[in-house]
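Researcher: Here's a chain I'd like modeled. Treat it as a single chain, no partners, no ligands.
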Amino acid sequence: MAFAPVLGSWRGGRDSLPMSLAVLRTSVLGRAAYWRRLWRRAGQGALLALGWILMSVGAVGAVLPGHLGVPLLIVGLIVVLRSSFQARRQFIGLQRRHPRIVFPIRRLLRRDPEVVPVAWQELLRFERLIMPRTWRFARRLRRRWFRSRQLSRTA
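Model: Modeled as a single isolated chain. Structure tokens:
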């Protein structure tokens, strides 16, 4: 019984050389897969951290004048939801608990977001929430604007 420390197997014999090369080859491939997995996880962690940073800056910027934080908040949410399975599960749970609040966010997260209709719908909702019926102006403004556009088209 021969024992070759690098290339042989414990038994020796005719099939010892290919067996040991296969083991050597799989260990090299295993190392490559390990490093690929490690870099992929590090990249996911970096994207997750970037998304959380964008969301926190966006939340602060949404409160400040100018409203430049809302796009940052949405981009951060997109990055976090694409890179974290747990965040996706929490977002789906939030969507099931509060569908009226999360639905506009889902419309903005789509591939071709409908920004103007979402903003208009949220303006109407905010107006209905805050102002009494006699002070509301957005619906009257829309009807007046569309009526004037229809009259100009027919003329």
